[in-house]
Request: fold
Amino acid sequence: MAELLCKPFGTHGKVHQITPESAGWRHVGFSLYRLRAGEAAAEATGTREVILVMVEGKARITAAGTDWGVLGERMDVFEKTPPHCLYVPNDSDWSLVAQTDCTVAVCSAPGQGGHAARRIGPDGITLTRRGTGVNTRYINNIAMEAEDYADSLLVTEVFTPDGHWSSYPSHRHDEDDFPRITYLEETYYHRLNPARGFGIQRVYTEDGTLDETMAVQDGDVVLVPRGHHPCGAPYGFEMYYLNVMAGPLRKWRFQADPAVQWIMDRDA
Reply:
């Protein structure tokens, strides 16, 4: 099994590159660029569709033969404003030139040519509260099931206040048995505020064959190949993560850990 906690391999340029081959699964890919103003990045999508997420900063982007202009507005992810994103289909290419220092996520999954290149956000993305009590968190849905923006990709942002939990009550989506549950691989790109803090993520199965609890730092990525995957933000440290999910069916159906099902029932 691949290591679930992926540290950035640099501080500048491409700092993450997770492929289905490196992760030991079939669908999700995730890369991250941290660029200075004037620097460039470019890739061909090949057989995969891509959603570029402007996590921070601004960049001029060309993709699928179109100049999309300068995308990006928030300069700090913890502003919580809706992100500027761009969908790029398979058999295309994209390139960008940073207009400011910027952080750009490259979310990918198998493409079938079912969607044309398009902007996603900031219009149509609204920060939404979810949960109650110390399970309260705030969501920017970029391309979830309700938005017919992609062939395979599901992408969302989550902001977890300090002292709170998210991706909780614990749930899993690791069986292909729709409508009861769907098989979705998932990556978590974590940020912390203040950046020198830490958060906690546990990835575990009910039978105990997988059970890892990780201290995540600013810029880390966690792989979720199966099982439950709750996150905790210690008091004093706000947590952000960008989720990328994909599987054989673009539906998000999950099952709660039986140990916490009573919380789901109470808060429904």
